[in-house]
Amino acid sequence: MSPSENPADVLGNIGFMARSPLYETEKPHVFIPAPGSGTLPVGNVELEHKDVLIHDVRKFNARLSVNGFQVAKHESKHLGLKTESDAALYKGETEKFLQSIFPDADRIVTWDLRRRKNIDRSAVVASANGEVQIDAPAQAAHVDTSFNHGAQLLERYLPPELQAEYLKPGSGYRFQVINTWRTLNPVLEDCPLALCDFASMETGDIQETTLTYPDKKGEIYHVYHNPNQRWYWYPMQTPSDLFVFLNYDSESGSDAKYCAHTSFRNPLAGPDTQLRESVETRSIVITRLQE
C-alpha cells in the first residue's frame, strides 16, 4: 500500500471475508433475523479487517460501465422519508433520475428503499404504522446480489405484467440492478460509503454467500481482500452528491459486472460528528439489446 499525496485519501479499516478452508466443503451462509427480534445474524462467515487506502473519488473520473459506479449531482425534493408514502415519492423521483443516466432504457422499476443510521444492529427495531424501516450500515465488503441470484430478483420484484412483456424467452432485453446512495446528513463524516473500482477486482476476489431471511432466501457476494483493489469514498459528502452503482448486469460483456461496497470508520471524523443517516434504492433497469 503506497502513501498518498492527497490529504483526503484516508487509511480506512474495511471488513472482508477471511479466506478459509471451510468454504471448500461448506458454502458460506448467514441467517438474517427479522428487524426488532433482538437477535443478530448468525452463520459460518468469517471476517477479517484490513487497513486500506481509500481514495478521494472527486479526483477520479469514475464511469459506471468501466468502474461499476459513478458520482452524480442530484437535488431531491423528498428527503423526509418517514413514511412509506414518502418512500414512494422518493422511488418515483429515483426512476426519473435514472432515466437521465440510462436514456435508452425501456423501463425502470425502483422496488427497494433502505434508510440506514449508524446504530448497533441489535438496536434495530421493526417499523410500525407505515413508517420507513431504519437499518444499520453494512459492516463488510459485499455485492448486493450474485449473478445467479440476479435473475431471481427480476422474477421476484418485476410486476407480473412487466414479466410477461420483458422476461419471455427471446425477448432481447438487458437487465441491470442499479443502486443509488446518498447521505441524509448535511455533511457526512461518520461511517461513509466506500466503493471498489471493478477494474481493480480479480475473479477470485468474490465468494457467493447464501442469505436466509424469515420469508425468503438470497445470494450475495462477499469480498476477499486483494492489495490490487482500489477503493474510493466521497469526503464531506452532501445529500446532493449521489453515488450510482451496479450490482447485477445480465449482459455486461466487457463492461463492469458489479461494484463491491461497504461502510467504514472515517479516521478524519471528529468525536462529536453526527451519526450517519443515509438512503439507498435498488432499481431494475431494462434496456433493449442492440440488434
TrEMBL record:
Output the superkingdom of the source species.
Eukaryota
Write down the InterPro entries for this protein, in alphabetical order.
AsaB-like (IPR044053)
What GO MF annotations does this protein's record show?
oxidoreductase activity
Bilayer-spanning residue ranges: none
Cited PANTHER family = BLL6449 PROTEIN (PTHR34598), OXIDOREDUCTASE AN1597 (PTHR34598:SF3)
The family classification in the record reads: Belongs to the asaB hydroxylase/desaturase family.
- Family annotation (NCBIfam families): CmcJ_NvfI_EfuI
**What is this protein identified as?**
Methyltransferase
